[in-house]
Design brief:
heterodimer, A: 333 residues, alpha/beta, Rossmann fold, 4-stranded antiparallel beta sheet, 11 helices, 12 strands, B: 8-stranded mixed beta sheet, 22% strand
Chain lengths: 333, 360
């Protein structure tokens, strides 16, 4: 499979009164055609800003993409004009946002909003876009699409709104779909519905997907590979089995140990990561995870480890990665 | 009127013979829906909680799970009388508190604590951490001197893992996890018997969630507290609960001891709910059987006839629209409400004439 998206040394900073926040700090990764990548991390780790940087939607000011390349289908998205970028957004890259309540325009009908990308990017006539819109709604499982097109976002439930967002994001059959916490605000049964729809449609269209989430379970179920972010940097990257079975970064180990899951013994005590996420304006000199890490040594204090290949296509950014073992309670391989 | 505290009896938490600490019988909370601005008329009723029975024994954790709109939060609020119950009884330590008001109610509330979901919205931003934690002490007159008050506040803060020197700081100076710790300390201040925890960790990051869950568990062991743990996250509920009740559209559809319910779910809703939760285990996820429910939770304004779950149920039959299933015992403490279950015994008055012909 060929590479669809190649991100090289991407850095996005925010200038605030408290100082510069390096929300995304020298992040590089690749995405192949048809691949589903999970981008995992806690709030403030930079996963959403990475997505916004790819789409060039970082609010500026205060945000600024300071360096790096985002090469999508051989074209550097950071170098093209805004007009060209508008042709990429929606047509080549679709995005689904977290809040289904606020990401639809409340004063335009659902039909009007669905038709927009079709007419803009594919040059459809009103007739064509209308019939395509109702096909799309049917595809994402919305009953009675013709009537639904005339309604407004507030007349639909959260799950339905997220379906409409999916229909919109996939309407031009993009090469890449970015789902930024697309199911976080939804109930579990609705979350399962939405994720199944995304999987089915992107499989059919051969779309690559970046799932951005803090939920390790969602990634385990739907992704092929995982990137773990912490404090603006990629800390670990690899295939699902590599990262979940043999994590090479203490933060990944900590995350896996602190989530209660249905397949583990419920009587085993959770092992939280101690402390809290560091202040992003005032990161330590060495490794940003040092204060919460059980493996930290003198070296970690002095210099920040870079991402290195610890085994075939499995990358970790930890000086002590040879000592890091998951020692996970009860997970059966 | 006196309420005996349960602290003296916590040693015998596991004896089944004792009466429950908190007993909720046939609780109903209905909200009228009105129309019109000056002349209001009632056009409908939302049955947020419709006939819920629950009991909590000293020192145990009852998990209450359900999706949004299931009524789980309303049950929690009704227990503390933050919501007026339409019908039903709330019995605390053998005394019915449902119709108590004023000072009597305040006295009852000393034995009940509550931790709210939103660590940002539930603390008064103008009160320091020390005052927030000390407020219940003042309201209930639990300390006799200023020095005792200060000592107790410091003690509470260190109990939840905060430095007592932080007492002078205000909520915005704390992180989400620390704020939730203040919420827990506040609930503990009056030495309650039961604490209602309403989604206490769902607003927190995963690494912080585990810290707060462990704190809640440790405090239970130390003080013999009983918890009602309300959450939508089934994995978290499994980790913390002794018994679990699953709610759907204002009703309990299944309840039982934790392992009975999780290892052998009987109600189709519980089965679907459990299969919808992805686990952080890729190998297991590849082989797992998933039940994906169709549609949304129905509007509580216009709930389906018969079984409330039938519109999304994969095994619903014609009869489900006619028969209102009741919770029936399966074995031990495990009960579920589904007429298609093999344990379900139909009573003559609820059975349709041709019930024998339609097997699931």
């Amino acid at each position: 499979m060929s590479t669809l998206l190649d991100i090289k040394n991407l850095s996005t900073h925010f200038n605030t009164s408290a100082g510069t926040i390096k929300a995304v700090n020298d992040v590089s990764f690749e995405l192949r055609e048809g691949e589903t990548l999970g981008l995992v991390g806690e709030s403030g780790c930079g996963k959403s800003v990475t997505a916004l940087s790819i789409m060039r939607l970082v609010p500026s000011p205060p945000g600024r993409i300071v360096s790096g390349d985002v090469i999508f289908q051989g074209q550097n998205l950071l170098k093209i004009s805004e007009a060209e970028m508008q042709n990429v957004r929606g047509r080549d890259i679709g995005m689904i946002f977290q809040e289904p309540m606020t990401s639809l325009n409340p004063v335009l009908s659902i039909g009007r909003q669905l038709r927009e990308p079709l007419e803009l990017h594919l040059g459809m006539t009103k007739q064509q876009s209308l019939s395509r819109s109702s096909e799309l709604l049917e595809l994402v499982g919305i009953p009675d699409p013709a009537t639904r097109l005339k309604t407004f976002p507030h007349q639909t439930s959260g799950g339905q709104r997220q379906r409409i967002m999916i229909a919109m994001a996939l309407s031009c059959e993009p090469k890449l779909l970015i789902a930024d916490e697309a199911t976080t605000a939804l109930d579990v049964t609705i979350q399962a519905q939405i994720l199944e729809i995304i999987k089915e449609l992107t499989d059919r269209l051969g779309t690559s997907v970046i799932i951005i989430t803090h939920n390790l379970g969602v990634v385990a179920r739907y992704a092929d590979s995982v990137n773990v972010m912490y404090a603006g940097k990629l800390r670990e990257s690899g295939s699902l089995d590599q990262v979940y079975k043999e994590p090479k970064h203490p933060y990944t180990v900590g995350l896996l140990n602190s989530v209660p899951t249905l397949d583990l013994d419920p009587n085993v005590r959770l092992q939280p990561i101690r402390g809290e996420i560091p202040n992003l304006t005032d990161l330590p000199e060495g490794c940003a995870f040092i204060d919460r890490c059980d493996y930290a040594t003198q070296k970690c204090e002095e210099s920040e480890p870079e991402l290195e290949e610890v085994e075939d296509a499995h990358f970790g950014a930890c000086w002590e990665h040879r000592r890091v073992g998951k020692n996970l309670q009860g997970i059966t391989p | 009127m006196t309420i005996t505290t349960a602290h003296s009896t916590t040693d015998e938490t596991n004896s089944n013979s004792q009466s429950p600490l908190l007993d909720i019988r046939d609780l109903k909370v209905h909200f009228p829906v009105t129309e019109g601005f000056i002349i209001q008329r009632q056009v409908g009723v939302v049955k947020a909680v419709d006939g819920v029975n629950l009991s909590v024994n000293p020192g145990e954790t009852l998990g209450l799970v359900g999706e949004s709109g299931s009524g789980k939060t309303t049950v929690g609020r009704a227990i503390l009388k933050l919501e007026e119950a339409t019908a039903g009884q709330i019995i605390l330590n053998g005394e019915e508190i449902s119709d108590w008001k004023g000072t009597r109610l305040r006295e009852a509330r000393r034995h009940l604590g509550m931790v709210f979901q939103d660590p940002f919205g539930s603390l008064n931003p103008r009160m320091s951490a020390g005052n927030l934690v000390g407020e219940p002490l003042k309201i209930h007159g639990l300390t006799n001197s200023k020095s005792e008050y200060r000592r107790r506040v410091a003690e509470l803060l260190s109990l939840v893992g905060l430095n007592p020197q932080m007492a002078g700081r205000y909520p915005h100076e704390f992180s989400g996890g620390q704020r939730q710790r203040i919420g827990v300390a506040r609930a503990l201040a009056s030495k309650p018997d039961v604490i209602v925890l309403d989604e206490p960790v769902s607003a927190l990051d995963v690494s912080i969630q585990a810290q707060v869950i462990n704190l809640i568990k440790d405090l239970q062991t130390e003080f013999g507290l009983a918890y009602i743990f309300i959450a939508h996250d089934l994995s978290v509920v499994r980790n913390i609960s002794d018994r679990v009740a699953v709610m759907y559209l204002g009703k309990i559809v299944e309840t039982g001891a934790r392992d009975e319910l999780y290892n052998n779910p009987k109600h189709p809703y519980t089965q679907a709910l459990l299969s919808a939760v992805p686990t952080a285990n890729p190998a297991l996820e590849r082989t797992r059987n998933r039940i994906v429910l169709e549609g949304d939770i129905p509007s509580p304004l216009n709930p389906p006839s018969g079984c409330v779950f039938r519109t999304r149920c994969p095994v619903a039959t014609e009869e489900c629209s006619q028969i209102l299933p009741e919770l029936q015992n399966i074995e031990g403490t495990h009960s579920a409400a589904c007429i298609n279950g093999d344990w379900y015994k139909r009573t003559p008055q609820t059975t349709g004439a041709d019930s024998a012909s339609s097997a699931p």
